[in-house]
Amino acid sequence: MKKTSESIEKFKKGDSGPKYLFRGPHCEWGVIILRPNEQMGAHGHKSVVEDFYFIEGNPKVMVANTEFKANPGDAVRAEPGETHNIVNDTDKSIKLVFIKSPYLPDDKYSI
Prior knowledge:
Strand order of the largest sheet: 1-2-9-4-7
CATH class: Mainly Beta
Oligomer: single chain
Radius of gyration: 13 Å
Number of strands: 10
CATH architecture: Sandwich
């Protein structure tokens, strides 16, 4: 068993970006906070499926050449090979959950 809390894990960029809650052995997941004008960064995965569940805010989402605004409660899946990015083009922070499976930390490629 492993137990953690969002309150004790660290964001990649200090107060924003991804915060991993669990990494491996089967999947990795956590939360992302993007401040106004921040973005996740366009990327893809060779074998990994990445799911997103939006909690707060209405960011611009791009997956496989499709662009739309996400709303709280929306869930989005990026299949292997589908380029994806999340852009906070609003004036408030956004928060979402991400889940990547299977756990292959070197599977990501940047665009």
